[in-house]
Write a structure and sequence with these properties.
This protein is α/β, with parallel strands linked by helices. It has two domains: 262 residues, Glycogen Phosphorylase B (Rossmann fold, 3-Layer(aba) Sandwich), CATH 3.40.50.2000; 165 residues, 3-Layer(aba) Sandwich (Rossmann fold). The protein contains 17 helices and 13 strands. The strands form two sheets. Strands 3-2-1-4-5-6-7 form a seven-stranded parallel sheet, with helices on both faces. Strands 10-9-8-11-12-13 form a six-stranded parallel sheet, sandwiched between helices. The longest helix is centred in the first third of the chain and has 18 residues. The protein is elongated, with a radius of gyration of 24 Å. The C terminus is likely disordered.
Length: 456
């Protein structure tokens, strides 16, 4: 049994719960099993009609921080003014920095995240007023832990500035590659611990941070008992191809549909299920219709993990044609690829980002260049024409997932790093070196408990 900590870690998320971010829910559950006390602060309530069943097992309390200023303008202003009154010097330094950065970026993003951090600190942290006892419903936070290096980590960054309480974060995909390097570097160097889900991301982040900043690679992983191979795989009818993901440009669904059209032209029989939702849904529907694929390609809405199991069990091939966008946006390792491999399904994907860390070309799947329908079609045809090879590669895929992508082992690494960070919270953070930059803070606030820091 893991040691239970009495300290509370604030988990800062952009939105919770989200169907496309099951890995976060699973990580939270495993951290709780490791003995962590967590309190989730979400910057948005996605309001999705469907949620994964694991969400109901999470013990952590969930608090929502307003994401839009104007509907909650009065509450935002009240919280920020009260915090400014209680700690004017620290508040003004952080506010000035956020305002200057927003002006330079010509974006309100940084100042909004600062306001959210101040709202969180003033309204929800255990900050007893010197004039009276602490208010009910507040929490004593020992550490901030954010998922995604943009908005949530920016909130954690300013929360540290305002309270002296340290933060850690986990970086993933879009949040890494669409962010200004100078601010990302500040957040990297100011964190107690940084983790990311691929070695590809880790190398990129370490180049930005420079020497001395260790970035830990922890694959998202999954429950290999939940995602286990069916006794019988091959269907008696035509082969079944499966693809799952948000219908957004970086997932490459138009390329996949074009490749399916080429398979059809070659006389290959198949049925493909495309499962997801997003901005490209109607465009994909029109593309399927225009290519005459409506009888062999079915679009389905986003499903929960348990609902997806039925489709994984029926699939003979998993395909996802990921690509890098012109603005740099890309995937890390799509979780659905790992899920498919755990179910002994051979994978065809592209050789970008962290995907080659999971799919070994010619061992458990095939990788082709991005945005190349003929190459993608040829790879799928290879496996559709050789069921024995497909089954052998499927078995090899599950073996790799068990070896490298077991969620329990990977979350234990994060848990150990968080425990080290919690143990460091007594250190004086003025020893942290200031980060160079046009508007970098001169130094972090003097370390003290949140209660002492803001009761002044």
């Amino acid at each position: 049994m893991s040691k239970t900590t009495t300290k509370v870690v604030a988990v800062i998320l952009k939105g919770y719960p989200r169907l496309s971010e099951t890995f976060i829910t699973n990580e939270i559950l495993l951290l709780e099993q490791l003995g962590f006390k967590l309190h989730i602060f979400a910057l948005r309530n996605p309001g999705e009609a469907k949620i994964h069943e694991n969400v109901r097992r999470v013990q952590a309390r969930v608090t929502y921080i307003p994401d839009y200023f104007w509907p909650e303008a009065r509450a935002f202003l009240k919280a920020n003014l009260r915090l400014w009154w209680r700690r004017p010097e620290v508040y003004w330094q952080a506010f000035r920095y956020a305002a200057l950065r927003s002006l330079r970026q010509r974006s309100s993003s940084t100042i909004k995240r600062f306001a959210q951090a101040a709202y969180l600190v003033q309204n929800f942290l255990m900050l007893p007023d010197s004039k009276g006892p602490a208010r009910a419903g507040r929490v004593s936070i020992a550490h901030f832990y954010a998922h995604f290096s943009h908005g949530p980590t920016t909130v954690a960054y300013f929360a540290k500035w305002l309270t002296g309480t340290g933060y850690s974060f986990s970086a993933h995909a879009k949040d890494i590659y669409l962010q200004e390097h100078d601010f990302l570097r500040e957040k990297l160097l100011g964190a107690s611990m940084v983790t990311t889900c691929t070695a590809y991301n880790r190398n990129y982040l370490q180049q930005i941070a420079g020497p001395g900043r260790e970035v830990m690679r922890c694959y998202h992983g999954l429950d290999t008992d939940f995602f286990s191979a069916p006794v019988k795989r091959r269907s008696e009818g035509c082969p079944r191809i499966l693809s799952i993901g948000r219908f957004v440009p970086k997932k490459g669904f138009p390329t996949l549909v074009q490749a399916l059209h080429l398979l059809r032209q070659q006389g290959l029989e198949f049925h493909c299920h495309l499962i997801g939702g997003g901005e490209l849904k109607e465009q994909l529907r029109a593309q399927i219709r225009s290519l005459g694929l409506h009888d062999c390609v079915t679009l389905l809405p986003a499903l929960s993990q348990r609902e997806l199991l039925e489709y994984y069990c029926q699939a003979d091939l998993f395909a996802l044609a990921c690509e890098v966008q012109s603005d740099g946006d890309r995937d890390g390792i799509p979780n659905v690829i790992v899920e498919a491999m755990a179910m002994e399904i051979p994978v065809v994907s592209t050789d970008i980002s962290g995907i080659p860390e999971c799919v070994d070309h010619g061992v458990n799947g095939l990788l082709v260049p991005e945005k190349n329908p003929p190459a993608f079609a040829a790879a799928m045809a290879t496996l559709l024409r050789d069921p024995e090879l497909a089954q052998a590669w499927g078995r090899a895929g599950r073996e790799k997932v068990i070896r490298e992508f077991d969620s329990r082992r990977n979350v234990e690494k994060i848990g150990n790093a968080l425990r080290r960070a919690l143990g460091e919270e007594t250190a004086d953070v003025t020893t942290a070196k200031p980060v160079a930059g046009n508007h970098a803070p001169a130094a972090w606030p003097v370390k003290r408990t949140a209660a002492a820091a803001l009761a002044e």
